[in-house]
Specification:
The complex is a heterodimer of chains A (166) and B (99).
Chain A (H helix, E strand, L loop, with lengths): L1 H21 L3 H21 L3 H26 L10 H24 L11 H7 L1 H11 L2 H22 L3
Chain B lengths: L2 H21 L3 H25 L4 H31 L13
Helix pairs in contact in B: 1-2, 2-3
The chains are: A mainly alpha (166), B mainly alpha (99).
Chain lengths: 166, 99
């Protein structure tokens, strides 16, 4: 059952990602990207990361995607034609394929599991994902958390300053 | 379920993202492909977090999402600024430095 769910979600994610990069209309690309994000959220649920799955739907599918759709509709870039260069398509696919094959080769030969931590599935089942996540975030990773909030503030000011009419 | 399953899925999604950046010339779709690559990295993080019985992977996902949101906001503002100057978002048109 778990395997079946994984294969279905992985299939949806890969197919919709392929559709995303091949659609001419950017609005269609954005909607296929939405489907990819939902499938990846399902994968996160499978990986005992329920909080991350919720954040994925809220932040990516809710906020970032709406931002993309706003910009696409604001600029209306469909009126400009695309330059068709078939060599670029072949070369780009080839470069990405070489990289993925390299990763596959590494995965086949390498031992990918290292030292185990303390949060076993039993601990996870007992205390819950959100509790453990919050405890770790606000104790060990408190300073990076604050730094990331400053990063978001800077990005907000930067976005306003760049997009403003002068 | 083996760890390798998740890593292979993540690698495939990352490859699709790279392909999107390389073959598309529409700046917005190139940005979307970048988000896809970040998402593939997030799958990797969550998978290692589960199989190593550690929480730090999931914490890093939140930081990656934070950076992705900042990148999307600033990048789209840059695209709007570029569109205002050149009336296009085709990446091949921005060749002022090579002339």
């Amino acid at each position: 059952m778990e395997q079946l769910a994984f294969y279905v979600l992985a299939f949806i994610a890969i197919i919709s990602a392929l559709f995303m990069i091949t659609r001419i209309n950017p609005v269609h690309s954005a909607l296929w990207m939405l489907l990819t994000f939902f499938a990846v959220a399902g994968i996160f649920v499978q990986l005992n990361a329920e909080f991350i799955a919720a954040i994925q739907v809220l932040v990516y599918a809710g906020a970032i995607l709406v931002l993309y759709l706003f910009v696409v509709m604001l600029l209306n870039p469909k009126s400009r034609g695309f330059i068709k260069v078939p060599v670029r398509y072949v070369l780009g696919t080839l470069i990405a394929l070489v990289l993925v094959i390299q990763i596959f080769a590494t995965l086949r030969s390498a031992n990918v599991i290292g030292k185990q931590g303390s949060i076993t599935p039993e601990v996870m089942k007992e205390s819950g994902n959100v509790f453990l996540f919050g405890k770790e975030l606000f104790t060990t990773y408190l300073v990076p958390f604050e730094v990331s909030s400053i990063l978001l503030l800077v990005a907000m000011i930067g976005a306003i300053a760049l997009a403003k009419k002068d | 379920m083996l760890l390798q399953h998740y890593l292979i899925l993540s690698a495939v999604l990352f490859g699709i993202g790279i392909t999107g950046v390389l073959i598309r010339r529409n700046l917005i779709v190139m940005f979307m492909s970048m988000e896809l690559m970040l998402n593939a990295v997030n799958i990797n993080m969550a998978a290692f977090s589960k199989y190593l019985h550690a929480m730090s992977g999931q914490i890093f996902i939140v930081f990656i999402m934070c950076v992705a949101a900042a990148e999307a906001a600033v990048g789209l503002a840059l695209i709007i600024s570029l569109f205002r100057n050149k009336q296009t978002i085709n990446a091949d048109e921005f060749n002022l430095m090579s002339k």
